[in-house]
Design goal:
With 79 residues, this protein is mostly helical. It is 77% helix and 0% strand.
């Protein structure tokens, strides 16, 4: 569980306390962080795979960005 928190803190280092607090009290936020970590690891794992379907890989990248944006919304971060 701490791994997910630390990864999200790396994305938004100025919001460590807010991330910790939200992670403790909001199950949806925890799930979103877990989903983000899973998606991110899949993207990193397949990034240099020459045999991957490029469309599938692009979809994973879109999903990763979408999850990151949802986390941003939960943290009330303005672009």
């Amino acid at each position: 569980m701490r791994k997910e928190v630390d990864s999200i803190i790396q994305l938004f280092p100025d919001l460590e306390e807010e991330i910790d607090d939200l992670f403790q009290i909001d199950e949806n936020f925890r799930d979103m962080c877990s989903d983000y970590m899973l998606c991110r690891s899949m993207v990193l794992e397949r990034k240099n795979d020459r045999n991957i379907n490029r469309e599938e890989f692009a979809d994973m990248e879109v999903l990763q960005r979408s999850l990151e944006e949802e986390i941003r919304v939960q943290l009330n971060i303005k672009k």
